[in-house]
Amino acid sequence: MTNRFEAVIFDWAGTTVDYGCFAPVRAFQEAFKEFGVTPTMDETRKPMGMLKHDHINTMLHMNRIARAWEDAHGAAPTDADVDAVYSHFEPKLLSILDNYADPKPGVVEAVAALREAGIKIGSTTGYTDKMMEIVVPKAAENGYSPDFWISPDGTNGFGRPYPYMVFKNLEKLGVTDVRRAAKVGDTLSDIREGKNAGVFTIGVTEGSSQMALSQDEFEALDEAGKAQARAAARTAFVNAGADAVIDTMAELPTLLAQLA
Questions:
Q1: Catalytic amino acids?
Q2: For residue 142, with 0-12 CB atoms within 10 Å meaning exposed, 13-18 middle and 19 or more buried, which class applies?
Q3: From start to end of the chain, where are the E strands?
């Protein structure tokens, strides 16, 4: 039987590496604190998956953060303020990224199974090229290396939810039809990117930014707590338009084989 899928396009942090997507969260929160504003975990994670500059812009224009900024600085946030926060964010993230490039459980095995089935492995990210120059070789050392990756730097700054990074993957990997590709991600921005590109779009719950738990925090939950955390993430992905939701990457090869 011919496999329906020619390629799978993965996100990076929270999907294939960095369980819980904590590297950017920590850098965002520290950067904002330097400007006298302390964002909540929910506020920090809501735009996750976007190009990081766009992410900061989105956060700065959230009602509570905008008011806190005005209280701290005497004026509403401007484009120059977005640049200023980003200028603090980027070096913080670059300094810690190499500690957040371990593949999530099941990723290396799932990718091997997909390749065994003749499926190519692509990827998109909210990181910049400079960030990926740290993450990509480190992930490769740890056993994960996709056939192609691209950041918004390769699409004129148009990151998620625009579909262009997915389109670049389809072109580079020689995919014959958008319906023969799947996008896998851990944020609502990932789901919107996949839907906008017309590919089969899958959310992954455990270790996702959407779930927002570290591996230790998740494993410390009782079974009911784990089920509740999975269900909440699943609902969010479905509401964003996901075609399917898996809990772990180990489920992906079987899901795609069933869809063939």
A1: 11, 52
A2: middle
A3: 7-10, 120-123, 181-185, 200-204, 244-246
Provide the token pair at 32.
């904002």
With beta carbons less than 8 A apart as the criterion, state whether 149 and 122 touch: yes
Asked if residues 169 and 198 have their Cβ atoms less than 8 Å apart, the reply is no
CA-closest candidate to residue 210, choices 56, 57, 42, 28 = 42
Among the listed residues 182, 181, 229, 224, the one whose alpha carbon sits nearest the alpha carbon of residue 205? 229
Give the separation between CA 10 and CA 134, rounded to whole angstroms: 18
* pTM given for the model: 0.94
Cβ neighbours of residue 245 under 8 Å, at least 6 residues apart? Answer: 202, 203, 204, 205, 233, 234, 237, 238
Residue 250 has pLDDT above 70, yes or no: yes
Write the pLDDT tens digit of every residue in 122-133: 999 999 999 999
Strand ordering across the sheet containing 244-246: 120-123, 7-10, 181-185, 200-204, 244-246
In the chain, the domains with their CATH numbers are 7-21+101-258 (3.40.50.1000), 23-98 (1.10.150.240)
Q: Residue 135: enclosing H or E segment and its boundaries?
A: helix 129-141
3-class secondary structure, 103: strand
Please determine, for residue 204, whether its predicted confidence score (pLDDT) is greater than 80.
yes
By C-alpha distance, which of 244, 192, 228, 234 is closest to 210? 234
